[in-house]
Write a structure and sequence with these properties.
Rossmann fold, about 20% strand, about 425 residues, 16 strands, 5-stranded mixed beta sheet, BirA Bifunctional Protein, domain 2, RNA-binding
Length: about 425
Amino acid sequence: MEPITSIRGFKDILPGESEKWQFVERKAREVFGAYGVRELRIPILEKTDLFRRGIGETTDIVEKEMYTFLDRGEESLTLRPEATAGAIRSYIEHHFYETDPVARLYTIGPMFRRERPQKGRYRQFHQINVEMLGYEDPRVDGELIGMLMAFLTSLGIGDLDLEINSLGCADCRPLFREKVVRYLGDREDTLCPDCQRRLRTNPLRIFDCKVAECREAVREAPVILDSVCDGCRDHFEKVKELLSSIGVPFRVNPRMVRGLDYYKKTAFEVIGHSLGAQNAVAGGGRYDGLVRDLGGPDIPGIGFAIGFERLVSMLPGRDEDYSPAPDIFVATLGREAEDTAFRLLNDLRGKGLRAETDYSGKSLKAQMKRANRSGATHVLIVGGDELAEGALVLRDMKNGVQEKMPIPDAVVKIEEIFHVR
RNA sequence: GUGGGUGUAGCUCAAUGGUUAGAGUGCCGGGUUGUGGCCCCGGAGGCUGAGGGUUCGAGCCCCUUCACUCACCCCA
């Protein structure tokens, strides 16, 4: 019989790896908590229209990457390709703004995009998202970006670059876009085929192209930071100032653009240099106007998304550093010993200790081998001979020293070693 | 969607077109009646991704297909 395999681009997160995920989540809750950011849990399936309206009809995501199907042949549903649209749908649906327009939310979970998998890119991938709704103030931009960097730092991840840019607002961006189209339109024949297409679909993206001819064409092109309106310029200047004031290093990248239509003003990206071609570990920006576009009141917002898989791949150390070994391994010799050991294990675990054993009935040698491999620092050997006098053997695996002692004494000794009661 | 690379033991990898496809590691057992790591010995484990073709003979050459992987596109 042919075994059934997982789907292309869908990955199992195995023990050894999953502990790293738990570590990241634990840190996220801890750091975000300090900023008053609270968890929102939302469905992974939404009505397709939510994403069409939220992300933009002409984006790649909506045009060709969504997992969309008809539910019972009636309603079009989509596995979420990103989290912001759903979070805002929830914010609007539950009338958050009636009691308090300000909301600081995070979500953690899977996203789905039907792209060709490669290093750091999967069809089911996971994101940690933070959304801060209700504030137009640049201090929120600074706070949010500062929090992101604090989080990454708390994980022990180095070798990161923060890049920021301003994309302009609904007033000034269209003007800039026209300027760019006019400028590059005159040089269309020097652009690569992809960029000739982008000229019509997403001209700002040309700034990001890696082809040498396009870089040349773009070199003298108008820069968005020179073209934004006074409001956007002041906002951006303030964000930069605030980041500097809290010691967050950044680089202004005037060519950075974002893939989703809704971004305005502040945009940012965190680049990890060990990641390969897909090198953005986090990205985000301001999306004033999105809440209104999704049918809510005109409330501003800003947020970011962190790529979980990419983040985990950057964690320092080995897998084992994130997976705690058991404290005690219990080995047995003989029928009676097995029953005693069973009760002993139950007691040890009741004290909060990580205790393991082996039920294969194999030799003590085999059990010791397993104990060693488990990484347990101590082994309790419950043997027939000692048991006859109500005793057992406690062995320290680090130095090989072992001692026979009455069961009650052994319990006290273990409590001392592990500081439990 | 497009292009490159790779598919051999659980894992990492060897093997001029020529006997019975090997090694390391892991697993199981022994060297020690009841003691792990280090060392020694033994054992199990393979339709060489799948299908077709060329050849006296294919893991190796050709075609097809599938999978994985990297890159483009795009993005976290």
